[in-house]
Structures are given as C-alpha cells and as structure tokens.
C-alpha cells in the first residue's frame, strides 16, 4: 500500500468518510486555477497542473507523501506583541492559504494567481516549536520531548540554523510553485512572525528516476532505503497515537542541517566510500548483497572471518538494537548546494536538509544520533551545523484550521 | 521549425553530415550510464534518463536549446600562473567532461557516476571574458564589444556579481544533474581557475507548463514572448556571422543580475502592474489584445484617444526602433529566490539571472538597456546589481575541444 493510500484510508478514524474525501480531492484536482478560467480550453493539461495532494485528513500531508523534488523549510519566530488571539488569526489565514494553494487555487490575497496554475503536488505542513505553547497559553500541552536535543559530541551548531517557534515545510515538484507558495505564506504571516531561517532543498526532478526509486544525495549514496513504506510501519514509527486530540495523528520533526565536505569525499576511492557508508554504492545493497532492500546482517563475514559490514560504518551504527526494532524513523531529506560562503571551510557549500519524522525524538532520533556521533566513520565528512525540533499537529477536517484544538475559544 | 531542429540543420555548414550527428546523438542517448550497466534491465526508462541534447554542432548547445528548468551560471577568474599552454589543457579536460556528461556518461574523473544516470537535457556552454584573450596571447582576436558595458543611470552594480575571465552556463531539467555537473566542472578546473561568482536559477519543472508555453517570472510576468524562434530570427539576432573561424557561429552573452523588490510589487494592483509591464498580465497579450503573440502596436489608442500602451512601459521602451528591426535579443532568463540577506533592503532575496544572447551587445543589449534605464516604469521595482559580458565561441566537431582555433599550437 502506498503511503498516500494509507493516509486516505486513515480518514475513517476521524469520522470523515474516506470515499467523500477522495471525491473531494478528485474535484479539487480538476478545479481550474483562477487565471486559467479566462483562457480557451486546451486539449490536455500538463501532468503537474492536475497533480494535487489532499490537504485535509487524519495526518497532515507532506509527511507520508512521496518526496517531491523541491523543498523550502522555513522556521519563524513569533513577534513580541503576538498573543493567543493573534496566533488564532494567523492559523485561520494560513490554513485557508495552504488549503487553497495545495488544491491549485491561489491564496485569497494573491494577485499573481497565474503562478499557481500547476499545483505540482504542493504540500504545506505546519510544525510548532516550544514557544508556540507559551504564547498560546497551553504550556501544559507541550510534549516533553519538544525542546532542544541533547548536545552530541560532533555538534558544530550555529545559532542561525537552530530552533524556531513555528515551521512550515513547503514541498512541490515545481520550484516556481514552492517559491511562490513560500512567498505568500511568509507575507501573510508578516504581522505575526519573523523569518528565522530558510532551508531550500532539492531532489531529482520527476522523470529522472523510476517511480519509487530511492534518490541519491550529493555524496552519491542512496538515501531513504529503510524508510517506512507500509501503513503498519508508519503506525509503528511515525504517527503519534497517544495524547490530546490535537496531537493524535501528528508527528515529531527533527531538522538537522548537515554540511558535507565534498572536497574530502572526492579524494576517497569507491571502496573507502562503501566501507564508511556500510552499503554497496552502486545498488545500495548491504555489503556483499545484491538488492537494495535486503536486510543488513552484521554477523555476515568474508572468507577471512572478518565482518562484511564495518561495525563503525554509518549503516551499522544507525541500525536499531534487536530489542527495539522501531528505533527507526522516516527520513525526508533534501540536498542543498549553494555558492561557497566567503569564509567557508570547503570549496563548496553543500549538504543535506536532514528532516526526519518520528513519534518521539528522544526515543528515535536521539539514540541513533548518539551512536553515530560516537563512532560513525562518516563523521569525517559530515558536520551537523543546525538543529531544531517541532511537533506537527494532526491533520485537519475541511472546516478546521491548523491546531484549532489548541487555539479555539 | 523548433530551435533544436534549426541547430541540427546548421550542421551542414561545418561539413559534418547532419544525419551522422543525429545518429551519434541517438546512440549517446541510449548508452547506459556506467552505474546502470550493473543493474538488471528495467522495462522502460524514465523520460529524463534518455533526454540528451547533442553537444557538438555549428553552435554550442544551450543557446537555442529550449530553456531547461535549472541553471548554474558560473564565472571564473584565471589563476596568476596559468599561461596559454595550461589554458589549452583546461579546455581539453573541460570539453571531454562536457561532451561526456551531456551524453549521459560520467566525467572520466567522476567516482559518483550514478549521479549522471539521467542527463535530463543537460547542456554546458562556454563563454570567454576579456582576460582569456590576454592569457591566450590572442588579444588581436578579442571582439571590440568584449568589455564592461557602459554605465547606466540606474546601475547599482556590486563587484561580487561583475565580470569574470571565463564562464560556464550549465542547464538541465534536473537540479541534481546541474549541481553534480557543476561540481565536476569546478573541480576539474581548480588547478587553473578560481570561482568568481555562481548564479543559480530555476524555471517551471517539465510538466508544469504546456510545451513551448512562455514561463513567468516571480512578478507573474510572462518572460520571453518576443524571443527568436525561427531559424531566420536566430540568424538575424543571435549568431555571429562574420569574423575569425572560432567566432563564426558563436554569440555574445550579457548577464545582468536583477534584484526584484517583491515587497513593492506586492502592493501594486493588477492594473498598475499591467501599465508598468505594457502587457496584459493574464495572457501576456499587448494591452487590449487577446493573444500573447500579437504584435504590439504603440499607436493604438483607447476611446479617449490615449495610447493603450504607456510609452514609459517596459514593453514600449524595449521595442526596437522601426529602422532597426533586429535590435532584439534572445532572453534566456531564470528566476532566483534565496533566503534574505542579512542587511538586505527587502524581505526577500529574489530576482532574475538575466542572461541574453545576441550578435553584438553594443548594438542590441546596450541601446535597449539605455532606453530602459532612462524611463522604464519597472525601474521602481528592479535593480541591476551585476553585469558581465562573454563571447561564446562556435560549437565543436566531435574531434575538437572548445576554442581550439584560439589555443592550438
């Protein structure tokens, strides 16, 4: 079952008939953008003009949605004079904007509505940081794990990439759509919020890989092989099942900005890369294996009795302990590649917007990262330069605004 | 006739049989990337894995090639100890890299060859700046117009975005391919060149617009309506016909980095935007017209006898004078949209990588820009912050390296 089908299926849980919602989604995907209504009928729409992801549902879209090609991840800080009432106003505006734009309709405040003619699988996903709960006067509702992660041995965090009171993950298969949607969301939040950081990322374009093929990062490694795919795996690893109404069906987002030393990686040979990664570089299979999706077996040895997979490799250390098989998470990772910084340490400014989703960062991201920080061979070439944690509230029904349970009178 | 067909047709002029070249291109597009040879046969390749643009030809590819979705435009400065012989070495390496990668094969020095599995219409195009001719000991060959453009009234140029001794325009329909190809070209030039500036840009993804539909910039304006399309128009406006062997079939590139005041534009209503632009915003048609491609007639008036198109509008001032109908050029323009600069004047860091091709910048870009700088209503919202001029040598035959006529013994 594809993640998207699983998401629709879950709608039953909210008392929204799955059939009705699917019908609504189909209707939305056929609705013309405002700008197009004035143009003569065209024979056939280009595929990205009808590609929509349903906004409403048990879970927010953009988490189990197959990764689109382009990302803007934006962290905001709440302005000083904003209170609970004004946060509610912001959420009403933002939810309406996001619901409209993801259906291929322009925001009500958008005069450049032609730029939204191809929704291109746009998703807009809300995350809440610690201070949101303070301003919302709901500190008792704040999950225990919603705080800065513990410090790791290899951290090189920079304040400019850390934290944030709120975040938006904006993804689509068209960079113009992502840029325009981000502009609208930033502009309409300006009375309430300041932008803290923006992380822009990309993966292969639609049509460059086979459907469902695992994309590679700029080190050439397949990234996301052991991601959850089946509904049960999402249930076990990603969706929060307990807690208040606003939280059940939600998830936890950890964002790490990871700088990659392309100069250092470039001088490694393929064998060293494979050893450090713990996977075959060409197929992504476990060392000595043939298929990307074979299970990694750390006990396998070569003809000299030596372990096939280096115990200090990234894969060996990232694997969950036998007694905690759900110590895994959903990587929803994008590449970044910017012009070199003026006093940067490398000839490039390249890395990962490492976004991952889970039930509880302290039980999933944290123990994995602690092991990696202690021993991962990859630490020679990767550097965590930013860190943030957000809680993603559950999805909305068609009449709700984001986080309504937390902000309603 | 599509620009691409026109380009193939022109091959006759170099004594390379068009048929042979087309066959070579087809062969290249079917060749598997090195990494794929190890994988079992797959039923059907995704479209961008077989999408190649022929590298060799009368003209360099990437000029009359339909604009791909992603751009890196890179300016380099030649290191102090580099001489004519070393420039020749660089051109041999670079040409081989570019010829291989645009055919979907990895550079010979590339260990991450899986990243090149989808060439995605990759083109890599070389431009030469003033100092190239000095180092190549060919100053007599330098075109007269190859120098910084005259200063314009509205210029706000910043040294960081000006000039360059060489440039590469790297374009593809996949951002990973552009990033990886750029990395290889930069890395393999490191003994010879320093990167001066990198301008990354984007347009809509393949599948977001109708084939051949004019894309919009982030002000919502259609950009490129009057671009040359027919072979005759390219001949009249873009390709240099006279001069030395290396120059005939080449072109002149002007790069302007144009910052856009999104904050100011946002508060304009649609009528003001239309007046400043000089075109209908929805269709891109001349004011009062219906079709984007109708000819603009500045003498048309409304019921009060007032001109339909404001004489200070962008379109009115950009139009060629009647006696100089070829005072036009090929806009090959991309959007940029980066996180706001620390002390930037706007809430966004948005604009155009305005790249345009022509026979002679002093007879095409310059007079147009002079009129625009004097009176364009758009000047309230656009700011030229960078400027560079390059000459693009003619295309190569299969056994040649770039600019071979200038560098051979």
UniProtKB/TrEMBL annotation, chains A, B:
Q: Which Pfam families has this protein been placed in?
A: Dyp_perox_C (PF20628), Dyp_perox_N (PF04261)
**Which InterPro entries does the entry link to?**
Dimeric_a/b-barrel, Dyp_perox_C, Dyp_perox_N, Dyp_peroxidase, TAT_signal, TAT_signal_bac_arc
- Dyp-type peroxidase N-terminal domain location, by residue? 60-202
Instruction: Cite a single GO MF annotation.
Output: peroxidase activity
Q: Which cofactor does it need?
A: heme b
Per UniProt, residues of the Dyp-type peroxidase C-terminal domain are 214-395
Q: What Gene Ontology cellular-component terms does the record carry?
A: cytosol
| Entry keyword set | Heme, Iron, Metal-binding, Oxidoreductase, Peroxidase, Signal
Which family, according to UniProt? Belongs to the DyP-type peroxidase family.
Checking PANTHER family in the record gives: DEFERROCHELATASE (PTHR30521:SF4), DEFERROCHELATASE/PEROXIDASE (PTHR30521)
What is the designated name of this protein? Iron-dependent peroxidase
* Species of the source: Corynebacterium lactis RW2-5
């Amino acid at each position: 079952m594809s993640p998207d089908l699983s998401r629709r299926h879950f709608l039953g849980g909210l008392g929204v008939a799955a059939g009705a919602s699917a019908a609504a989604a189909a209707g939305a995907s056929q609705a013309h953008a405002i700008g197009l209504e004035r143009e003569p009928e065209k024979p056939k729409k280009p595929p990205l003009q009808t590609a929509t992801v349903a906004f409403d549902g048990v879970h927010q879209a953009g988490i189990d949605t197959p990764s689109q090609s382009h990302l803007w991840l934006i962290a905001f800080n709440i302005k000083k004079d904003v209170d609970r009432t004004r946060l509610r106003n912001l959420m009403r505006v933002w939810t309406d904007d996001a619901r409209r734009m993801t259906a291929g309709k322009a925001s009500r405040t958008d005069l450049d509505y032609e730029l939204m003619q191809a929704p291109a699988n746009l998703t807009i996903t809300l995350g809440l940081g610690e201070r949101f709960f303070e301003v919302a006067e709901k500190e008792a509702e704040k999950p225990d794990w919603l705080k800065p992660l513990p410090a790791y041995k290899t951290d090189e965090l920079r304040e400019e990439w850390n934290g944030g009171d709120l975040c938006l993950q904006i993804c689509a298969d068209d960079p113009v759509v992502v840029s325009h949607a981000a502009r609208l969301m930033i502009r309409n939040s300006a009375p309430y919020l300041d932008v803290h950081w923006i992380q822009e990322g990309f993966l292969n374009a639609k049509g460059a890989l086979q459907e469902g093929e695992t994309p590679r990062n700029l080190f050439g490694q397949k990234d996301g092989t052991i991601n959850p795919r089946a509904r049960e795996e999402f249930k076990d690893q990603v969706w929060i099942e307990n807690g208040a109404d606003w939280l059940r069906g939600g998830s936890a987002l950890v964002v790490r900005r990871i700088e990659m030393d392309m100069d250092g990686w470039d001088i490694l040979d393929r064998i060293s890369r494979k050893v450090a990664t713990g996977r075959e570089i060409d197929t992504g299979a476990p060392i000595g294996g043939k298929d990307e999706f074979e299970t990694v077996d750390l006990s396998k040895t070569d003809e000299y009795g030596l372990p096939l997979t280096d115990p200090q490799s990234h894969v060996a250390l990232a694997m969950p302990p036998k007694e905690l098989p759900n110590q895994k998470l959903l990587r929803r990772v994008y590449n970044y590649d910017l012009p070199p910084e003026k006093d940067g340490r490398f000839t490039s400014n390249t890395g990962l917007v490492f976004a991952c989703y889970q039930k509880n960062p302290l039980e999933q991201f944290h123990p994995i990262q602690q092991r990696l920080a202690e021993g991962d061979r990859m630490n020679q070439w990767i550097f965590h330069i930013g860190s943030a944690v957000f809680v993603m509230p559950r999805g909305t029904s068609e009449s709700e605004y984001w986080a309504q349970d937390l902000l309603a009178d």
